[in-house]
Write a structure and sequence with these properties.
CATH class of the largest domain: Alpha Beta
CATH architecture of the largest domain: 3-Layer(aba) Sandwich
Shape: flat
Largest sheet: 8 strands, mixed
CATH topology of the largest domain: Rossmann fold
Length: about 500
């Protein structure tokens, strides 16, 4: 049963629309059904005529063949009249057996050949008896050849008749089947071609069906709630800064390998006793804050070594000749402080460490000046331009095992061009043989392509992010750029974390 619902500008209009649709549906259904049945019946009738024509043609061919070959039988008239079944023609036109004359001749020939073979054992070939047998054998073979030709001719006629008779029987049965189905279709059309009936006509409604104010209010409330929540989550993702490690791992997909607490330091603080270098061993300045800060770098140091070994499947437990790049997404996220303190921490456990500065946006020269034993203006760019030797730019620091190569003062050449030159690759190879760890402090990923080109060459990269400052999407974008360039990102270091969130996961 089909229920029709209509909407109109007035009760009477709604009623008329529903009734009109019902009548149109009945008319359409009736016309469609009639066309379908008529097409089926016409197609079956056309096929029946084709089979009838084929049946008549096969009957005429059978009759003509029998008349031509002189083998007209009573069975032919039955086939032409349509009164023979498949079983009837099969028994009437079964393949005959080998004629008796042929079988008898073959037997006689065989016996005479056996007799001839026996005589040849004790009689000469010209003996009259042997000559007589040979003549009889030749005569019998000629008669056998004649009988076989007669039999073949007879079989060919019989086979041709059988084939034509089979076609007549097949067409007769096909015609009978199609004629029966044709009549069945006509009967089904009469019985089943009954159009649908209207059980009840539409009446004018007593009250309007819409607007349903309660439903509209409910849907509006739910939509408002879901849209509001979705907007909140979206804004949180694109605008909220990274606060705790879970923000990094969920939004970016990389582990947090270091959590560095926030410290206070003057902008011009460059001495070795500066809070920026808390990892430097100064027993006269001990406090809970300093020890916690130092411990955070020890944890970073341990995780970094483990990440190096795990990511490179490296069995080298001595950590010899590794190159680490420290970078960030934006300026002033603390990569200089993180790189320097990590270098100090690694040097304090006996590793020979080289800290190299390639950040032209924010050079670490003044930050590190308090640790250097000597002052000099030459640096990395001077080596790459051929204006200085390697030994002239490696500066010893007040920290045992820690050495520094500053950026240098020669800015006549494009730094990005120098860093992708073969000279820089040769320099790195020679330094790896003399240091356990080389830490390269690079420019922010979003400001320079240097970090992308160098990141693909080093053993690992750590990405520094300033807690409660750097946006999630910015860090995600930087990590994606590094990955696409082929860099091995070991993890993220959350810098300047609030002491209230340090224990968060």
């Amino acid at each position: 049963m089909i229920r029709i619902t209509a909407t109109g500008g007035s009760p009477s209009e709604a009623k008329d629309i529903a009734n009109k649709v019902a009548f149109e549906y009945i008319q359409m259904t009736e016309n469609s059904s009639r066309k379908v049945w008529e097409n089926l019946i016409n197609q079956m009738g056309s096929k029946l005529k084709e089979v009838e024509t084929e049946l008549e043609k096969s009957r005429q061919l059978l009759h003509q063949y029998e008349a031509k070959e002189g083998i007209i039988t009573g069975f032919s008239s039955l086939l032409i009249g349509g009164g023979v079944s498949k079983e009837g023609y099969g028994s009437q036109y079964a393949i005959p057996e080998v004629p008796q004359a042929i079988a008898s001749l073959k037997t006689n020939i065989m016996q005479m050949e056996i007799q001839l073979d026996g005589l040849r054992k004790y009689l000469p070939e010209k003996n009259p008896e042997i000559i007589r047998l040979k003549t009889q054998i030749e005569d019998s073979k000629q008669r056998l050849q004649q009988e076989q030709e007669k039999a073949i001719e007879k079989y060919n006629k019989q086979f041709g008749l059988t084939d034509l008779a089979a076609k007549v029987v097949f067409n007769q049965q096909l015609y009978t089947t199609l004629a029966s189905k044709h009549e069945d279709l006509k009967a089904q059309y009469i019985i089943q071609n009954k159009p649908p009936e209207i059980v009840e006509l539409a009446q004018e409604p007593d009250f309007p069906s819409k607007p349903k104010k309660a439903v509209i209010l409910m849907v509006g409330a739910f939509l408002g709630l879901f849209l509001g929540l979705g907007l909140v989550f979206f804004l949180e993702f694109i605008s909220n800064p990274i606060r705790i490690p879970r923000d990094v791992e969920r939004s970016i997909g990389f582990p947090v390998i270091g959590k560095i607490p926030r410290i206070r330091a003057k902008k011009d603080s460059t001495t070795k006793n500066s809070p920026l270098f808390i990892t430097y061993n100064n027993p006269t300045k001990r406090s809970w804050t300093r020890e916690f800060y130092k411990e955070s770098f020890r944890v970073l140091q341990s995780r970094l070594m483990h990440s190096f070994i795990s990511s490179n499947n490296d069995e080298n437990k001595d950590f010899r000749g590794k190159i680490l790049m420290v970078t960030s997404s934006l300026p002033k996220e603390g990569k200089s402080v993180v790189g320097a303190n990590l270098a100090i921490s690694m040097a304090q456990i006996g590793k020979k460490v080289l800290l190299m500065d390639i950040d032209s946006y924010n050079s670490s020269k003044y930050l590190l000046s308090g640790l250097l034993k000597s002052e000099q203006n030459t640096g990395l760019t001077d080596i790459l331009n051929g204006k200085a030797n390697l030994n002239d730019v490696i500066i010893e620091t007040s920290v045992n095992n820690l050495y520094v190569i500053p950026l240098g003062e020669d800015s006549s050449s494009d730094l990005s061009v120098l860093l992708i030159s073969p000279k820089f690759d040769d320099l790195i190879r020679s330094l790896k043989d003399n240091f356990d760890l080389i830490i390269i402090k690079s420019a922010p990923v979003t400001l320079s392509s240097i970090s992308l080109s160098i990141g693909a060459k080093v053993d690992g990269v750590i990405l520094v992010a300033k807690a409660d400052h750097t946006k999630k999407d910015v860090v995600l974008h930087s990590a994606s750029l590094l990955q696409s360039s082929g860099a091995n990102i070991l993890g993220v270091v959350l810098n300047q974390m609030n002491k209230n969130t340090l224990n968060s996961i």
